Amino acid sequence: MDWRGALAAPLCLALLAAASLPAVQDQEGSQAPPPVQQQGGAQDDIGANPTGAQNNPIANEMTDEAERAIERGFAFLLSQQATDGSFGLSRYEGEVGITSLGCLALLADGHLPGRGEYGEAVQRGLDFILEHINETGFIVGRTTSHGPMYGHGFATLFLGEVYGMNPGDDRVRDALVRAVQLIINSQNEEGGWRYYPVPFDADISVTIAQIMALRSARNAGIKVPKETIDRAVEYVRNCQNADGGFRYMIGTGGSAWPRTAAGVASLFYAGIHEDQAIDRGLEYLMRNALPGAANRTGEAHYYYGHYYAVQAMYLAGGASWEKWWPAIRDELVDSQAANGAWPDHYANGAYATAMSLIILQMPKRYLPIFQK
CB-based contacts of 83: which residues, under 8 Å, 6+ apart? Predict the structure, then answer.
């Protein structure tokens, strides 16, 4: 067994122990509302398996082709890391969100800061994030997207995963606590979040980034108020349309599969595992976004959508995971470029490659955030 295998055993035991605790419970005992009981549906139905995929792997989850694609992807991603530890070029040079996604891709293979083959790269990325958190707790880099709360959410998630997998670093804990508090303080009256850390409007895309960050922080032992989670759940529910898909904001608007994936994942990470809203969302994804059914790799939100969709299917488990996983795995393997990248229009391939590597490594089960 290599060092990553040695890490996995105690981590899995800890996760199994944590699974017996109430969902989204903070240090003072608050917790998310109990799951809404599902009405009807056989165990084979999409979304009907409440145990998820984390302890129910399907046969041949990882193929030799996928493993080779991951190694080529790592080689490309590492070639994109700047001397200051950040990932991302072009318009997104020094952007905290893409840097965090790049580091999460390495964490997903079990590499910790300063430990493992790519541990130095993770440490440099972590140092970059810690150097770019200001006195308010806002994590923002040299450049930002049109919505810096995206980057803040991904960076807070990264800090939560690092601290959860390797507790004891006071710098990480302090930064994580401050970043979480900024998220709590900037939730709007509807229960969601938007582009900037002010409690005005909200959209489901930014909201899922904050929910994942809060869940990761809670898993790592950081206090997350019950009220914050309750209000976030209400916001997400209010964004679902009659067809099972999710609109971008509360009010009118059509469904789209990338934000539907984000909506379903939001409910899972808020501690809800059996619910008709989840079932309807999973069915919408199966109808409208199953990999291989159409060539969508050129879509603007392809990698974003599948980043959340594969998490939703993994947490649903059962038939959802069994049908979705081989399809997205093989589609990503087939669409990888000769240089090991998955091309994007944002950061010279760093963004899409990081997203693809996170997706392809779901069956490795290293990241605590992917466990119930």
Answer: none
Q: How many CA atoms lie within 13 A of 70 on its CB side?
A: 20
The residue extents of the domains of the chain are: 47-370
Length of the chain counted residue by residue: 372
Please give the structure tokens belonging to residue 162. 């690092």
Question: pTM of the prediction?
Answer: 0.86
Strand partners, 361: none
List helix spans (H) across the chain: 3-19, 64-79, 96-107, 119-130, 148-165, 170-185, 204-219, 226-237, 257-269, 276-289, 302-316, 318-335, 350-360
Tens place of pLDDT for every residue, the chain, 372 residues? 343 443 333 333 333 333 332 333 333 333 333 333 333 333 334 444 445 787 788 999 999 999 999 999 999 999 999 999 999 877 778 899 999 999 999 999 999 999 999 999 999 999 999 999 999 999 998 876 678 999 999 999 999 999 999 998 999 999 999 999 999 999 999 999 999 999 999 999 999 999 999 999 999 999 999 999 999 999 999 999 999 999 999 988 999 999 999 999 999 999 999 999 999 999 999 999 999 866 676 677 999 999 999 999 999 999 999 999 999 999 999 999 999 999 887 768 999 999 999 999 999 999 999 886
Cα separation, 255 vs 244, whole angstroms: 8
The dihedral sign for the CA sequence 134, 136, 138, 144: negative
| DSSP notation for 19-32 | HTSPTT--TTS--P
Q: Is the dihedral of CA 354, 180, 224, 250 positive or negative?
A: negative
CB 251 within 8 A of CB 288: no
User: Is 1.50.10.20 the CATH classification of the domain at 47-370?
Assistant: yes
Q: In 3-state terms, what secondary structure has residue 301?
A: coil
C-alpha torsion 266→270→276→280, nearest 10: 10
What residues does 246 pair with on adjacent strands? 240, 256
